[in-house]
Design a protein that fits this description.
There is one protein chain. The chain is α/β, with parallel strands linked by helices. Helix content is 49%, strand content 18%. The protein is built from 7 helices and 5 strands. Strand 4, helix 7 and strand 5 form a beta-alpha-beta unit. It is globular.
């Protein structure tokens, strides 16, 4: 549900999102500039101390715990290592450059042709959004699914008991067809015993 809401917002185009996992949903969308900004731990500790009015030790403990939990969360939900630089188009280290320099670099990079919305990149985003809408409808009745789409055709992959295959396929098709823009639904089931 969060993925669908996020992607729905991304359809507006020309926006800035600041958060932990949005870039996971947009990994194949070329025009979405994915940026990671790093800061030295000492600077982060100092800012946390000031913001929360806490000791250096408390700030350090909170930051290490938050970093660990965010990493663990991303791995558990998406199987993605947030520290992997290949997840991003641009990685900036604040401390070696100023915040203003980072803003200039990001703005300049966002203007280059590679990061402009094209018909092709918009189509990829539209396909991802349609898949997320279909998944929202499907998981109401049958949660364990993987969903993707292309040109109005929704592909659903799921596991079920062999004797449930027809019932599950029918439920999934019915749910996905409730979504505007879905022309066809193709369900692949894999038996569980």
């Amino acid at each position: 549900f969060i993925e669908e809401a996020f992607l729905q917002h991304m359809l507006k185009d020309n926006i800035v999102y600041h958060g932990l996992a949005g870039h996971f949903f947009l990994k194949n969308v070329r025009h979405a500039l994915k940026v990671r900004i790093l800061a030295d731990m000492e600077d982060r500790i100092r800012l946390e101390m000031e913001r929360e009015n806490i000791s250096k030790e408390e700030a350090q403990h909170i930051l290490k715990k938050d970093d660990y939990e965010r990493h663990k969360w991303a791995m558990a939900l998406y199987g993605v290592d947030t520290a992997d630089p290949f997840q991003y188009d641009l990685v900036l280290h604040i401390g070696r450059i100023t915040v203003d320099d980072a803003v200039d670099i990001i703005c300049h990079t966002a203007r280059i042709p590679h990061f402009q919305t094209t018909d092709e990149s918009r189509k990829i985003l539209d396909n991802i959004v349609l898949a997320s809408r279909a998944k929202v409808e499907i998981v109401k009745d049958w949660p364990p699914v993987t969903v993707c789409s292309e040109d109005g055709v929704v592909y659903v992959d799921t596991k079920c008991r062999m004797q449930q295959e027809q019932e599950v396929t029918t439920k999934i098709e019915k749910a996905a067809k409730r979504v505007p823009g879905v022309k066809e639904v193709r369900v692949s089931t894999h038996p569980i015993f």
